[in-house]
Amino acid sequence: QKAMIFPNYSTTDETFLSNALRRLLSEKGGKKIVVYGMPLMYESDKIDFELYHALSMRIVLSDFVDETYQDIKDFRRDYFDRYGEIPTDDAIKGYDMMLYMGRNLWKYGRKFQYEIVGEPASFVQSTFQLEKAKAEDSGGNSDPEQFDFFENKHLDIIEFKDSKFVVRP
Questions:
Q1: Which of 57, 56, 54 is nearest to 41 (CA)?
Q2: What does the pLDDT look like over 53-79, one tens digit per residue?
């Protein structure tokens, strides 16, 4: 089994990425290939389900709404009952973000981010793992106490399985 990694992230690479995947599909023969890629592969209109399935694609995303989760189904139903509209994925993400912020503000106060570094927390669909991060242009200082901002470092890897995307365990 071989793995191919496509680190392409920019929408300007979409045509190249689509063509490269189609070429890989036509030349792989009977070999088992797993393709890893960035969110562009998931969001592209040029990449279809045939490629997802045939190339065993796995895509790295910072957040993924898995419609099969009961919590997601319950949230959508409750949201519709309350507001009379179908919630978007952004509504679920926003709900999770507000729960995360609110609970940590309540527990730790206004500087909660310093207290929760490295502690994972999961909600309806989002997982947060806050870490200290440096800007790319911050220089070569290797002191771990010197950082520029906090960043959610949690990533999901999804794969196309049984005609739908699911989060890999």
A1: 57
A2: 899 999 999 888 888 889 999 999 999
